[in-house]
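Lab notebook, bench 4. We co-purified these components, and the gel suggests they stay together. Before we commit to crystallization screens, I want a quick structural picture of the whole thing.
Request: model the full complex, all chains together.
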Amino acid sequence: MGASFYNEMHAADGSVRPHYDCFANWLKSTPSERIDRRRAEADMAFHRVGITFAVYGEDEGTERLIPFDIVPRIIPSAEWKALAAGLKQRVKALNAFLHDIYHDQAILAEGRIPADQVLKNGQFRPEMLGVDVPGGIYAHIAGVDVVRAGEGEFYVLEDNLRVPSGVSYMIEDRKMMMRLFPELFARHKIAPVLHYPDLLFDSLNSVAPLGVENPTVAVLTPGALNSAYFEHTYLAQQMGVQLVEGRDLFVHDDTVWMRTTQGPKRVDVIYRRVDDDFLDPRAFRKDSMLGVPGLLDAYKAGRVTLANAIGTGVADDKSIYPFVPDMIRFYLGEEPLLSNVPTYVCREPDDLAYTLAHLPELVVKEVHGAGGYGMLVGPASTKAEIEAFRKQLQAHPERYIAQPTLSLSNCPTFVESGIAPRHIDLRPFVLSGEEVRMVPGGLTRVALREGSLVVNSSQGGGTKDTWVLED
Amino acid sequence: MLSRTADHLYWMARYIERAECLARLLDVTWQMSLVPQSTEVADQNWRAIISLNSLEEPFFERFDEANANSVLRFMLTDMSNPASVYNCLRMCRENARAVRDTITADMWETFNTSWLELQTHRFDSVLSDPAEFFEWVKLRSSLVRGATLGTMLQDEAYNFIRLGTVLERADNTARILDVKYHGMQPGQREGTTDFYQWGALLRSVSAFEVYRKTYRSVISPSKIAELLILHPSMPRSLNFCMRAVVKSLELVANEQSGETQRRAGKLYSEVRYGRIDDILSRGLHVFLTDFMSRIEDLGDRIHCDFLETSIAA
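Here is the predicted assembly.
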C-alpha cells in the first residue's frame, strides 16, 4: 500500500498520458462556466428522465440519482483488445465449468476444485444436474468487475453471473456525453456502445429453445420496488420486448405463457432479473410472490430458455473465484490472460490465520455478499470496527474471503473542491449466445469520497462514461 | 397487450368515473336537502345512498343514523370506506402509477396532481362546503378525460380506458335514476318542491339545459327517464353509454369475447329501440334493476375474457 496509485490521465511526472492528450487540451481550453453549466444540465436531465435506483434500508421507495461525472475514463485501443480477449476467455471457461458441474463433473473428479466447495455450495442447484440448456450456455450476460493497478495491469475482482446490473447507466452516460459535448466526439474516435440492446436481443434470440423460429422474448422483473427497476424497464423498452412480472406468466403443459388481452401468448426466452430463489415457488422458496409456479419444470423440459440459467451463482461465488484461472487451463487449455486478485479463503486454516493477522491491510468480503454490504475495508476502518469484524470472522470463517487492498487506479473526477483523483473500477458486460460478444467499454464506477475504495452505487458511488479509443 | 396492463387501465378509468358519479349523486342529494322538506324525507334520501351502494353494514357500524353529516363524511373522505371518493381517487392513482409507461405524461401528471391536491383538502371544510368539493372532483375527472382524449394514441390501451369509463357510467346513471326516481315518489305532487327536486337530478348529470332544449316543456318525470335512458346523444344516457360499450368491445375483441359482445349488443338494442311508455308500464325500478345486473354480468365477463386470460381447463 502506498501513495503510488496509478492515475489514468497523468503519468507519475505529472505529464498527460498520450491517450488523454486531446481531452486534457479540451478541458484546459473550455471555459469553466461552460463546463459547470453542462454539469448542471446533466443533473437536471437525469432527474427529468428519472434515471434512478431505489435504495434499500431507507424509507420504502426512496429513489436516488446516481452521481454522474463528466470526465471520461479513457482506455487506449491496444489495452482494450488485451482486456477484451481476457474477458471472453474467462466467460467461456466459466460457461464450460457450469456445464461440467451440472453434467460430468470432470473438474471435480480430477481434484482441481474440492468437490465439497461446489456440491455443498448454497448456490449449487442439484435440480440442474443433467439438464441440457441451449448451446450449453449458462451465463448469457456476465458483468465482470475489473480494476487496474498499473499500466496494462488489470485484475478481475469478481465475476457477476446472476443478474448483473448497470448496463443502462453505461448507455445513458454515453448518450449524455454525446449530447453535452458533441465536439469531443468529433475530435476523438470513440468506439460506440449504444448498440448494446441490439446485441443483447440478438444473443437472447440465438438461445431460444430448439425448433422455435421467431422466439418471443420477455424481461422478467421483480417489480417497481426493485433497486434496478429502471434498468429492467429500460432494457425491455430498448429491445422492444414485453416487461413482465411473475403474475403475468403461467405454466401450462410445461410451456410458459403470458396473459394478454388476446389470450395466452407463448414465451420462449426469459431474460430474468429475479434471483434463482424467487423464480418458482413450487421448486424454490415457497413464499416467493415474484416467481412463476412450474417454471423450473418448463425449463427442464426445454420449452423455455432462462437467461441467465438457473444455478449460475455457484460460479460467481467468491469461494470459487480463486479457481477460475485453473478452469481456464482445464477447459480451454490456455493460460489465463487476466489475473485474479490473490485471495485468502478463510475456510482454509492457513488462510484464516494469515487474514486474522493482517486485518488492517486486507479487504474482507462475505462469500455471498453483494452491493458492498457486509465487508471490511481494513485500511479505511477504525480499530473498533476491525475488532468487531474479527469476532464475526472467527465465528464463521467459511463465510469470508480476504484480499490485499489493491492500489486501485485513480481518475480525475469533479468533486466539490474542483477536479481531484478518485478511485475507479470497470464493469464490462460480456454476452454469450451463438458467439461471445461485447461492446467496447463498460460501466466505470467511481468512489466519490476521497480515499474510498468502495464504488458501489448503493454506497454512494458515481459513474463515468468509458471511452475505448479506436486506432 | 398484457392483461395486467389492460386491467390497470380499465380500473383506472372505472375509479375516476366512479368518483365523479359519486360526487354527482351526493351533489343532487345535497341540493335536494336544501329545499324545504321534512327531516324524515331528507334522511330517507341520505339513507338511500348507503343502501344503493350496499354499504349498510360498515356504515351503521360507525354511525347511528344516516343524515347529511354522517353520509357525506362516510362517502367523501372516509379512508376506511373502500367506496369513498377518497379511496376511489387513491385506487385510480395507484392503477395509473402501475401503467405509467403506457399512459401519457399529461395523463399521469393529472392523476398525480389530483391525488396531491386531495391530501391538502381540509376535511372539515369539505363537509361544511361540500358543493365546492363536488365541483373539484368533477373538474379533476374532466381534466383526465381531456388529457386522455387530447394526448393518447387511440390504440388498444385507449379502448380499455374507454370501456372502463362507459361501463362504469352506465351503471351509475342507472343507479342515480333508480334511487332518485323512487325517492321522489312521483304522483305525490308538491308543486314547486317537485320542480326543484327534478331539476337537481337533471343538474347532477349536467342535463338541465339539455332537457329544456330537447323537450321545450315543463319538467316531467317520464321525460327525465326518457332522456337518461333512451336519448342517443346525451353523454350520460344508458343508450349513449351502451353504444360506446359495444364499440369499445368490438375494438378489443378476442377469440373468446363473442358471447360478451352478444350480450352487450342485446342490452344496447333494448335501450336503443325501447320506448319509455313500455319501460314505465313494466316498472322503472324493475327495468333498472335488470339493467344494473346485466352491467355487472358484462363486467364479470370482461374480466374473464380480457383481464385474466388463461388456458381454459
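Chain B has a mean pLDDT of 89. Worth comparing against the SEC data before the next meeting. DSSP finds 16 helices and no strands in chain B.
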